Amino acid sequence: MRKSVSAGAAECLQLPLHEKQESEKMRQLVVLACFLAGCLAQKPHPCESPPLLSGALTMSTQSEKLWTYTRYIYDAVGQRIRLFEMGMYNNKSFTYDVLLLFREAAMYEISYHNHTCKKKPLKADFQPMAIPKDANLLGQAVLGSSSAPGEGLLVNTWMGDLPDKSGKYVCTVTEFGCIPVSTSYQTKEFGWVAVSYFNNVVGIEDPAVLNPPDFCADAETKSGEEPTDFHSLFLKKNSSPPMMSGGLSVSTQNEKLLVFARYSYDAMGKRIRIKELGSYHNDTFHLDVLLLYRQGVMYKINDKNRTCLKKRLIEDFHPLAIPQDADLVSQATLGSSSVPGEGILVNTWTGDLQMRKGTAKYVSSVTEFGCIPVSTLFTTDRKGWVVASFFNNIIGLADPQDLTPPAFCKNSQLEEEEGEHLMTYFGLSMPLLQRKVSGNMRALILLACLSACCLAQRPQPCSSPRLLTGRLSVTSQNGKLLAFAKFNYDALRQRIRFREVGSYQNKTFHVDALLLFQQGVLYKINYRNHTCCKKRLNTDFHPLAIPKNASLLGQAVLGSSSGPGQGVLVNTWTGDLQMKKGKEAKYLSTVTEYGCIPISTLFHTDQSGWVVTSFFNNVIGLPDPQSLIPPSFCEDAQLQEEDEEEPEAFFSVF
């Protein structure tokens, strides 16, 4: 036997080179297979979830008395929890905002609308998100499929007794990361309570929410007040769905109203900005309104005259969500499902909503994946049917500044008249609770599983998203140039739009420029005068990408890697670019490791010297694709061919 093995080894050593390589690959594959088999054979152990966690959850009871949707922020280090909740209890809806400070044995019921705070004793002990060491493993399973990466999630389900021995619990967490998926436990009042977690992220986006607001500083616990039990908090709830930006159109059954609008939506802060133009009773109008529901005020803004009208807002805030009691009408594909990218799968829901004065009916369509609003039909006895259609939606805020009153509104006085009944499209649009965990969650789990391997790999040159919108600042080495711009970037069709303000040689300027590289032209656009200047563009299109011949300078964390959410991993690259007429340019670019989102770029030519560009408030996608098409009043613009004028280059646009 030993001889045959030695002979086999000798034969292996005499293999041709390519066969040796194939044999080596086979041995590596076998070792990997054995290693994976060993890993999968390991018995799962009780675990603890990350100490800092944010996400959302739903809670329902066996008795069907209670249902809640909650956004939570969890800090096991400081033993603090913040809950923004909304729900139904005994067929009555409620909202709630509560901060639990377990170390201080205190809780705060917070109302930003009235700037009031109630402080109460908290009798519950802090229970960290963890599987107790005495828990029993029920089983391990894959949610979804294990056939391909990203299609499934490996989870472990545990069972045991509650700490006070009042009943049983069943808890499911991810195998990697110990992220909570679902929990069921017994209570005397409600029977079994089911909790489902989703949209979880490791870290805390805004640590300030775990501190009492300033107006809570004087709140005192009333003497003799009963301590609050933790589970009773879910009898009152409030929630904050994601931030969104996009466009919408609104029309009415009687054809009196037709509106096109752009919106910025922040359910966390209960703020909406709507910039619209339309026709009502055959009269055209333009309206720019900022709705601040927590403050109970609205601003009608006129940027042209720099005036502001401030009024009381008495409407309730309606988040974009599908109510829990909605009935599913149908599921369908808009477009075609024959080829990816040609269609979209949507669900249509219907139901009734209790309003301040009577009942309203709605029919809402949302995407199956992501729960993005598509359209809403809404009717009341007074107003008939109103149709709202959503388009060009992006997740996030293209311009967070939109949700802050302009500086010239600072001295606006509140008009003391009857509060404004504003029929907004978000009052028309139904709340849109995500009934499914999105693909982002699966991607997050996959990223967590692969992170150890990824960090060991050498960074590779990358390309930024082909459609990108955001802000940037530009400064020059000689200090002559300082500019701030909003950009829309389309690498597919080589188009860029800049709307910028700045200072050049101590003179302020404003430029609105559309660069069409494939056509070799740029438009300088003036909406105020409805004029257009068309010039030759003598610059090559340079996509937001790290060239393949770039050299890696280094990898670093902006911020801190000590705790989750405290920093971002970036790569810095350098190299040379060949420009037209044989000229060379040097660059130094920093992008994120994940997503290749631009952070900053230093660009040098002999003509301009060093120019520094910093990117911020980036979102993937184009909120307004129309911005990359010349306006109609540019159709007759003639190409300027002055001999004395150099063709416009990219950085001269600034």
Radius of gyration: 29 Å
CATH architecture of the largest domain: Clam
Total helical elements: 4
Largest sheet: spatial strand order:
6-5-4-3-2-1-11-10-9-8-7
Largest sheet: 11 strands, antiparallel
The level-1 CATH class of the largest domain: Mainly Beta
CATH topology of the largest domain: the name is: outer membrane lipoprotein receptor (LolB), chain A
Overall residue-averaged pLDDT value = 75
Taking the alpha carbons of the first and last residues, their distance comes to: 79 Å
Net shape:
globular
Uncertain runs with pLDDT below 50, 5 residues or more? Answer: 1-41, 226-241, 336-342, 419-456, 560-566, 643-647
Number of strands: 33
Structural class: mainly beta
Number of domains: 3
Share in helix: under 10%
What percentage of amino acids are in beta strands?
A: over 45%
Task: Describe what you observe in this structure.
- By secondary structure, this protein is mostly beta strands.
- The protein folds into three domains: 52-235, outer membrane lipoprotein receptor (LolB), chain A; 244-428, outer membrane lipoprotein receptor (LolB), chain A; 467-653, outer membrane lipoprotein receptor (LolB), chain A (Clam), CATH 2.50.20.30.
- It contains four helices and 33 strands.
- An eleven-stranded antiparallel β-sheet has the order 6-5-4-3-2-1-11-10-9-8-7.
- The longest helix has 25 residues, at 17-41.
